[in-house]
Amino acid sequence: MSKISALGMVVKRDGPKLAAIRVLRSYSQWLSRRNELPNDIEYLKLKVLDHLLGIHGRAVAHGPLKGMKFAAEGWWGGADLNAKILGIYEKHVLEKICASVTSPSAVFIDIGCADGFFAIGAVYAGIFDKAYAFDIAKEARSQTRLNAEINGLAERVVVESEASTETIKSICYEHDEVFTLIDIEGAEFDYLTDELLDVLNSCKIIIELHPWVTSDDVREAFFQRVSQHFNVSYLAHSPVNIHQFPELERFSDDARCLCLSENRRQLSQHIFLTPK
């Protein structure tokens, strides 16, 4: 039995091609939720995605997280699947995490885990012994649990809803080395209180900033508060060579460049905090 894919390709109902159909359908639904129709740019992304899924299936193919699998029916993302499969999604964040951990028994706290890409990947790659993944969205927690199970890490990735100060305090008290990643879509400016920052004061922390959601005064107060507890620096984005992937040789320069896209509204900003 065969089926026509979203790109007009005939694919059999088995193996990675069936996975391609599922992911492409999920991506089309994601676009519909944004009231957008696939244009030429989206078509090129989908064309490359169909090709990558046919080769690698639902797994990271390059980089430190190589081999990590993720579910076909994704909740978060869609537009960033090419970058995830190629192992270049938020490359600068992953590189900083890898370079900052000093103990094999270190644990990872991921606040705003979405589908669990970093929480699961960091344990899968052996960077951390255990991860605590938090997200207030039920769909995110379900997706993270599913992805943890797919990778055989259900016992080593703890998934919870709200990362309260008391919960974070208990994790930091239990473990000698804790690394924290925070990506909560603009809520970081209110979430990181003096009390919580004091709890985290021995941790290394990466925070994704969403400056467009608040005022200059709020951002300034946030940086003053954070800098009282930590040394603060910005993460520089890591360069990516679009010619390094042999599986993309058949595609145009434009299509290969679009693989780097994470579909962001503007260049992401991350800060790195180290204890004073």
Explain what the structure shows.
The protein has 276 residues and is an alpha/beta fold. The protein has two domains: 2-87, no CATH class; 91-239 and 266-275, Vaccinia Virus protein VP39 (Rossmann fold, 3-Layer(aba) Sandwich). Helix content is 40%, strand content 16%. It is built from eleven helices and nine strands. The protein has helices at residues 15-33, 40-56, 81-86, 91-100, 117-124, 138-150, 165-174, 188-191, 194-199, 216-227, 253-258, and strands at residues 2-4, 10-12, 107-111, 130-134, 157-160, 178-182, 204-209, 230-234, 269-275. A seven-stranded mixed beta sheet has the order 5-4-3-6-7-9-8, sandwiched between helices. A two-stranded antiparallel sheet has the order 1-2. Helix 1 packs antiparallel against helix 2. The longest helix is centred in the first third of the chain and has 19 residues, at 15-33. Mean pLDDT is 86; it is low at 1-14 and 32-37.
- Please tell me what the overall shape is: globular
Q: Could you tell me how far the N terminus lies from the C terminus, measured between alpha carbons in angstroms?
A: 62 Å
What is the class of the largest domain in the CATH system?
Answer: Alpha Beta
What is the CATH third-level topology name of the largest domain? Rossmann fold
Give average pLDDT, whole number. 86
Rg, Cα atoms, Å? 19 Å
Q: Any idea what the CATH architecture of the largest domain is?
A: 3-Layer(aba) Sandwich
Q: What is the count of helical runs?
A: 11
Q: SSE order, as H and E?
A: EEHHHHEHEHEHEHHEHEHE
Low-confidence stretches: 1-14, 32-37
How do the strands of the widest beta sheet line up side by side?
5-4-3-6-7-9-8
CATH homologous superfamily annotation of the largest domain: Vaccinia Virus protein VP39
The description of the largest β-sheet is:
7 strands, mixed
Bin the helical content.
Answer: 40-55%
Which structural class do the helices and strands define? alpha/beta
